[in-house]
């Protein structure tokens, strides 16, 4: 017998083909999809007020008697007002609808209705209710109670979704519980049917909160079980054993700087993984300038010293070239051959690189996605580094790993993420955090300014460039649009060129072809461009030690973590670096965000504040990690529930690694749907 939850939504009365198509645009195909389409908020329509107690500005429920029929008045083209007088025992009120011809003839004098809407005062000081929801007294469905409000766009209306949801909950009957009784009892979680009814149509807000706690726990539990299933699968994959791990000490002695304690700790974790006989899958997370590349170089050195090849993949040619030059410098006196492979190389150069890689003459290969092309065959690939992981999909990393026999995978990210969020985004990886900057590194002085400081900032730019340094200017838009007054890159580049005629101003944005972007970035790195106007494409870019000034236009439009990443483009040389934020928003959130940037250079602290102020959905596009969007959990507000769900997930995996027992059937099925129906458990 088919489970009712898995039936198509058009089995519900009132949901025909056209309406089903509207629901499908919201990702709702089945009854279960609909039930898990949670409200974004609820309106409390339980309190019925008397008309005499209503005040302008509040949204209320009133129980009224129709005193006059609906009058129609056309006040201008495309604007018709429909109004009637309603009363109760305490007084009278005018009821107004705009462009709603359906109310004409709907109300008869003497009929009794419950209305819900916003009260205003007209120009004579008389109270009016504008565009209210109305239901006949005694037949109320969505007045006189707590009503769900869903996240809707397009032509689906609240009334349609509310009615369809009410019917689905009624038709679904008794739903089979997903979460085993012992887990529910331990964490005091509501039963599924109680929770489902009260998450949509709660009896009171206490009931809603109990229901929400259960679904937050369920969402985080299922996600973590799915990720732990991946991680567990990875952790049982055989890997290449590095017999000699102490060789990294030899490498460290050759560096012109001492490793920080955080770098040493991370390197020890990597070497421990590589010596255990299982494939490593480790994320190294560290702020800009924390020394991730030195750690990766030491691990690559160990791979080569143990008789194997290593590869390093970067998202852009300019970054790949930078890593190639860095590793070549690190290994210059060590008889280690580093080869570069990028898409723009000439055919002859590529063939030579292919030959060196396939014969083992190349010890280390650095490149872009060109490394994962079919023509590339490694002799003995044992260690892979993927830099700026969020720029690569899981599929690209998997292709690179397939070039060897279960090579160890080291993934680097310069985007500091709160640990709670990292456990979700990278739940299938072990995590190392480099939370310490090398001694002597200067912090970037940051200032948030308004338009009144524009002339002074231009003078500051001129002073710095005359002293021999360079500047970035970042904009949120490429070109002018009618709908926005944001500063745009093309206009600003032209404006700055006229203001600073003796300096060369460059322009770079995401719509340019990769080759042109690389050419402009190389020109900037060589010092031939003094001011580079850009969109956020320079967020991941080449190391330009001579650039010490970062100007960010419309800073209020960027997330804190993104602002921090942009700021990290400067401060890489010996000169004091500066970041100037032109912020035009005047609200409290904008003010707090700019204050955070000015007071701290700690990427992890900033990311915590970003998560707190903006929420996980906006953090940096979690979709690019292949993860589902959170439907109800908030990773900042629900940190305590997250810890509980992590504990429960680990208990379940220890009890039944592949969720094969009957009590875990429901959880297993939900896990399998997490990553677009990809089967997670083996």
How would you describe this protein?
A 7-stranded parallel β-sheet has the order 12-13-11-14-15-10-16, sandwiched between helices. It has a 6-stranded parallel β-sheet with strand order 17-22-21-18-20-19, sandwiched between helices. A 5-stranded mixed beta barrel has the order 3-5-6-8-7. A hairpin with a 2-residue loop joins strand 4 (71-76) and strand 5 (79-88). 36% of the residues lie in helices and 19% in strands. It is built from 21 helices and 22 strands. It has 682 residues and is of the alpha/beta class.
Summarize the structure.
The protein is built from 21 helices and 22 strands. By secondary structure, it is α/β, with parallel strands linked by helices. It has a seven-stranded parallel β-sheet with strand order 12-13-11-14-15-10-16, sandwiched between helices.
């Amino acid at each position: 017998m088919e489970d009712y939850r898995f039936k198509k939504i058009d089995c519900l009365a009132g949901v025909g083909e056209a309406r089903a198509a509207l629901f499908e645009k919201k990702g709702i195909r089945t009854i279960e999809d609909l039930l898990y389409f949670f409200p974004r908020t609820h309106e409390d329509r339980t309190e019925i007020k008397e008309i005499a107690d209503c005040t302008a500005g509040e949204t209320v429920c009133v129980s009224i008697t129709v005193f006059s029929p609906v009058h129609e008045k056309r006040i201008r083209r495309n604007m018709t007002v429909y109004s009637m007088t309603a009363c109760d025992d305490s007084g009278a009120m005018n009821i107004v609808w705009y462009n709603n011809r359906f109310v004409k003839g709907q109300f008869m004098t003497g009929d009794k209705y419950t209305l819900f809407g916003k009260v205003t005062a007209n120009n004579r000081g008389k109270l009016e209710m504008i565009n209210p929801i109305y239901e006949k007294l005694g037949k109320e469905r969505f007045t006189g109670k707590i009503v769900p409000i869903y996240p809707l766009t397009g032509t689906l209306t609240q009334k349609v979704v509310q009615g369809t949801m009410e019917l689905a909950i009624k038709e679904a009957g008794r739903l089979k519980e997903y979460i085993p009784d012992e887990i529910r009892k331990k964490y005091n979680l509501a039963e599924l049917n109680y929770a489902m009814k009260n998450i949509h149509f709660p009896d009171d807000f206490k009931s809603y909160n109990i229901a929400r706690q259960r679904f937050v726990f369920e969402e985080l539990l299922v996600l973590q079980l799915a990720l732990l299933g991946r991680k567990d699968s990875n952790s049982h994959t055989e890997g290449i054993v590095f017999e000699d791990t102490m060789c990294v000490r030899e490498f460290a002695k050759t560096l012109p700087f001492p490793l920080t304690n955080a770098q040493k700790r991370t390197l020890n974790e990597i070497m421990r993984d590589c010596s255990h006989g299982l494939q490593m899958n480790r994320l190294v997370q560290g702020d800009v300038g924390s020394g991730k590349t030195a750690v990766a170089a030491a691990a690559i050195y160990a791979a080569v010293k143990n008789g194997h090849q290593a590869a390093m993949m970067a998202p852009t040619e300019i970054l790949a070239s930078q890593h190639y030059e860095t590793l070549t410098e690190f290994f210059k006196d060590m008889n280690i051959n580093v080869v570069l492979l990028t898409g723009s190389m000439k055919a002859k150069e590529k063939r030579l690189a292919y030959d060196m890689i396939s014969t083992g003459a190349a010890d280390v290969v650095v490149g872009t996605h060109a490394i994962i092309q079919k023509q590339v065959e490694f002799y003995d690939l044992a260690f892979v580094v993927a830099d700026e992981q969020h720029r690569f999909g899981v599929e690209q990393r998997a292709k690179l790993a397939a070039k060897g026999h279960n090579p160890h995978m080291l993934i680097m990210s310069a985007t500091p993420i709160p640990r709670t969020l990292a456990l979700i985004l990278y739940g299938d990886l072990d995590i190392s955090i480099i939370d310490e900057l090398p001694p002597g590194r200067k912090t970037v002085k940051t200032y948030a300014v308004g338009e009144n400081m524009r002339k002074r900032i231009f003078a500051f730019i001129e002073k710095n460039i005359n002293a021999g340094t360079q500047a970035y200017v970042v904009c949120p838009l490429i070109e002018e649009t009618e709908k926005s007054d944001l500063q745009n890159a093309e206009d600003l580049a032209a404006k700055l060129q006229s203001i600073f005629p003796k300096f060369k101003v460059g322009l770079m944005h995401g719509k340019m072809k990769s080759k042109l972007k690389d050419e402009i970035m190389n020109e900037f790195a060589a010092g031939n461009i003094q001011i580079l106007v850009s969109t956020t494409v320079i967020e991941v870019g080449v190391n330009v030690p001579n650039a010490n000034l970062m100007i960010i236009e419309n800073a209020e439009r960027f997330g804190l973590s993104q602002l921090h990443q942009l700021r990290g483009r400067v401060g890489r040389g010996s000169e004091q670096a500066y970041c100037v934020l032109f912020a035009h928003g005047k609200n409290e959130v904008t003010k707090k965000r700019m204050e955070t940037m000015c007071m701290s250079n700690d990427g992890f602290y900033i990311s915590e504040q970003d998560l707190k102020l903006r929420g996980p959905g906006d953090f940096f596009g979690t979709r690019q990690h292949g993860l589902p969007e959170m439907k109800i959990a908030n990773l900042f507000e629900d940190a305590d529930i997250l810890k509980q769900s992590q504990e429960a997930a680990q208990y379940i995996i220890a009890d039944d690694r592949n969720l094969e027992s009957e009590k875990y059937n429901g959880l297993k099925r939900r896990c399998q749907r997490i990553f677009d129906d990809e089967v997670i458990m083996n």
